Amino acid sequence: IVVCLALPMSAMIVLVGLRWLSIPIDQMSITGLIIALGLLIDNAIVIVDELRARLWSDMSPAEALSDTVRCLAMPLFGSTLTTTLAFTPIALLPGGPGEFVGSIAIGVILAINASFLLAMTVVPALTCHLQPATRDEITFWRYGLNSKRVTHIYERTLVQLFRAPWIGVVLGISLPLLGFVQATKLTEQFFPPSDRNQIYVDLELAAPTSITHTHDLATSMGQALAQDDAIDRVHWFVGESAPTFFYNVVPRRMHASCYAQAFVELKSDVSPRDVIHRLQSQLDQEYPEGRVLVRQLEQGPPFDAPVEIRLFGPDLVTLQRLGSEIRLILSETHDVIHTRSDLEDALPKLVLNVDESETRAAGLTRAEIARQLYTTLEGAVGGTLFEGSEELPIRVRVSNQDRADLVQIAGLQLTPGRRFGPDGLEGRPLTALAELDLGSEVATIPRLNGQRMNEVKAYITAGVLPAQVVSEFQDRLDRSDFRLPPGYRMELGGEGAKRDEAVGNLMADVSLLVTLMIAALVFSFRSFRISLIISAVGGLSIGLGLG
Hints:
By secondary structure, this protein is an alpha+beta fold. Helix content is 54%, strand content 17%. It has 20 helices and 15 strands.
C-alpha cells in the first residue's frame, strides 16, 4: 500500500519538474516515466522492508524510523546518484538524437530522485502508521510463498558453492561473457522506425523532364494508389518536396521539374511495412521510366538514403567512374531496390562550334550570337504590367513549341548590329555560322567541407536494417577488383554515419561519468573492495542482458 501511494506522488514530482524545466510532456517524457517505474519502486521497497523488520523486533516506531533512515540514507543516495550519472550522457546528447531521446533520460533522472526523496521522508512515516507492529498471521499474499523443499535445495547449492568457490565464479560469469560474445553478431540500429500509419512516395524522372509530364505521371500514379484498399488519402506535391509533416522529413527538393513527392495516409488497421512492400513492387512494374521509392517514416536525425557511400577526389571523371563501380556492387547486394549517383545526373546541352571566319564575315561576334540566342529563346523584357500594387515584367520570346524544336533553333536568323557590320548586311542562319552538337553536362557538383564528392545512395527494402546491407556490401567490395586511386578516399554516410555520430556524442563524457560513479560508490560504502564488486556485477549484468 505504501509503495502504491508513493508512485503517484513521484509521478507528480516528475511532471512538475518537466514543466519547470520547460520540457514538453510528450510521448518521450511519458516513456521515460514508464522506464523509471522499475527503478522508482526500489527505494520504497528497501525502506519498507527494513523498517518492517525493525518494527517486528520490538523497537518503537520513532526509534525504528530513525535507525532505518540513518542506516539506508547513504546506500540509497549512492545508488540514486550512480543511476543519475548513468543517464546523464543521454540527457546531454546534442543535436537531433538528443531531442529524440533526451526527454526519456530527464524523466528517469527526475523520477529516481523523487523516489529517493520520498523514500527518506514520506514512505517511512506512512509505513509506521500502516504497518502492524506484530507478525501475527503469516499469509502468502503478504509475505510471499515459502517452500521447504526449495529452501533445502537452495541451502545445499550454497554449501557446495562455498566449498568450491571457483565453480560459483565460473557459473556466475559464463552467461554474461556469452552475452558479450553473442553481441558481436548483432546488427546495429540506434533509431527504430516509426509505427505511424503514414508513408511517403518519391517519384524522380530524368533531369530534362518537363513539369507537365511529371504532373501527368504523378496524377496517374495517384489514381493507382487511390484504388488500394489500405490507403485512405494521397496528397501529391509536384516540382518540390512535401512540407515537413514529420519531425525529421526535411524538404530537400525545390523547383525540380522532374521530381514529385506524395504523402500517403493509411487506414488504421493495416501494417505500413506490408503496404510498402506491395506498393514498391507494383509501382516499379507499372512505371519503369522513373525511380519510385515507397518509404517508411524513420526516427532520429534526417538522412536522404539509409545507405550512402561518399567518394572524395579532385577529378570529376574519375569520381563518376568510381561511383559507377560502387553503384554496380550495391545493385548486386540483397535488399537494395534502387541506387543513384549524384554525378550521374546529367543535363542535356546544345553545343555550338562557331566558325570564326564566317562569323566575322557576317559582322557578328560570339557575344552577339549568345545575346541574340538568349533574347530569342529565353526572352527579353519588353515592358511591365501592374497587377494591383505589384509591377510584373513582360517577357517576350518565341513559343514553347519553337523553343523545343532543334530545326527551328538551327534556322534562326542572326543579324549584325551597327557596331559589327555595315548597314544593309542581311542576316545569316545559325547553321551557316556554327555546327550544332547535342552534349551533356553534370547537373550539380556536390561538395562536403570544400571537397568534391560523389555520393552513391542505396535505397533498401522496408524493415531491413541498413547495417545488414552495409555488411554485405563491404564483403562484396573486398572480393571485387575495386581500388581507389591515390588522392581519393571513401567514407560511409546515411544511417550508419548518423548512428556513429550519435554514439560518439553519447560516449564523449563516459570516462568522466564512470569516474564520478566509482567515486559515489566509494563515498557511499567507504570501501574500494565493495565498490569494485558492485562495479563488476554492474558490468556483468550488461552481458547478461545482451545474452
